[in-house]
Design brief:
Radius of gyration: 19 Å
Shape: globular
Strand content: 25-35%
Structural class: alpha+beta
Helix content: 10-25%
Strand order of the largest sheet: 2-5-6-9-1-10-11
Number of helices: 3
Distance between the termini: 17 Å
Order of helices and strands: EHEEEEEEEEHEEH
Largest sheet: 7 strands, antiparallel
C-alpha cells in the first residue's frame, strides 16, 4: 500500500463503584430492568447530582497510572443530544477542563517499542440501554445503566496499524485490571471501544477523511474492523472517491 493508516482510539470504562456517578442507586449488573433508578438518574426536574467520591478517586488512579497531568480545577459539562436512553437529553461529561491530560501508554509492536500518547482521561456518566425487539416495531429501554460512572480514555491519532491498536488495547486493559478500578468485562459492556481511522498518502501531513467505528466490545473485533476499513478506504481513494 502507498498509504499510511492513522488511528485514534476512545475507550469507555465502567468504574467498579457500588453506586452511580451522581446518585446513590446501585450499579449491580443483571437486575430487573429499571429497578435501580431514582429522580437523579431518570432526569426528573429539580433533581441535583452529587459526585461519587470513589468514582473520582478511581479516575485519578487511572490518570496517574497513565502518566497524565492532573488539572488543578475541573468542571463538568452538559453534552446535549436527544436519544431515548438519555432521559435528561444531556450527558454529564467533561469538555474543556477534563480531569487529566497528556499521558501515554508504552507498547511493543512488530518488535519495536512505541509510546502512544493519551490526549485525555475524563469522567462522565453512562447512558441507559436500548433493547431492539426483533419481532415488532418497538424498542425497550432499561435505565439501570443510566448514570453509572464512565471513564473515557482518548489517544492522540498516532496509532498506525490494526496490530498497534490491538497491542495498545491489550496493554491498557492489563493496567486497568491491575488497578482494580473495573472488572473490564467486555461481554457486560464494562469496557467498550470506538475507533477513528483514516488513511493518507505516505509522507502527507494532512489527515484523510475520518470514519468512526462505534461500540466494539472485543479487541479481535476492533482489529478486524480496522483491517477491513484500511482496505475499503484504499479502494475508494484508488477509484477517486
Amino acid at each position: 500500500m502507498n498509504y499510511e493508516t492513522v488511528i485514534g482510539l476512545e475507550v469507555h470504562l465502567q468504574l467498579a463503584t457500588e453506586t452511580k456517578a451522581f446518585c446513590g442507586c446501585s450499579t449491580r449488573f443483571g437486575s430487573e430492568p429499571n429497578s435501580q433508578t431514582c429522580p437523579v438518574c431518570l432526569g426528573f426536574p429539580g433533581s441535583l447530582p452529587v459526585l461519587n467520591e470513589k468514582a473520582f478517586r478511581f479516575s485519578m488512579k487511572v490518570a496517574l497510572a497513565l502518566s497524565c497531568k492532573i488539572q488543578e480545577r475541573i468542571k463538568f459539562d452538559r453534552k446535549n443530544y436527544y436519544y431515548p436512553d438519555l432521559p435528561k437529553n444531556f450527558q454529564i461529561s467533561q469538555y474543556d477542563m477534563p480531569l487529566s491530560y497528556d499521558g501515554s501508554v508504552e507498547i511493543t509492536s512488530a518488535g519495536k517499542a512505541k509510546r502512544i500518547r493519551v490526549r485525555r482521561v475524563h469522567l462522565e456518566e453512562d447512558a441507559g440501554k436500548l433493547i431492539h425487539e426483533t419481532k415488532g416495531d418497538y424498542s425497550l429501554v432499561d435505565f439501570n445503566r443510566s448514570g453509572i460512572p464512565l471513564l473515557e480514555i482518548v489517544t492522540e491519532p498516532e496509532i498506525n496499524s490494526a496490530d498497534e491498536a490491538y497491542e495498545y488495547l491489550t496493554r491498557l486493559k492489563s493496567i486497568l485490571k491491575y488497578l482494580e478500578v473495573s472488572d473490564c468485562d467486555m461481554e457486560k459492556g464494562s469496557l467498550r471501544c470506538d475507533a477513528n481511522i483514516s488513511i493518507r498518502k505516505k509522507g502527507a501531513k494532512r489527515l484523510g477523511a475520518k470514519v468512526e467505528l462505534k461500540n466494539m466490545n472485543t479487541f479481535k473485533g476492533v482489529k478486524a474492523a480496522l483491517e477491513y476499513e484500511e482496505k475499503r478506504q484504499a479502494l475508494l481513494l484508488e477509484d477517486g472517491e
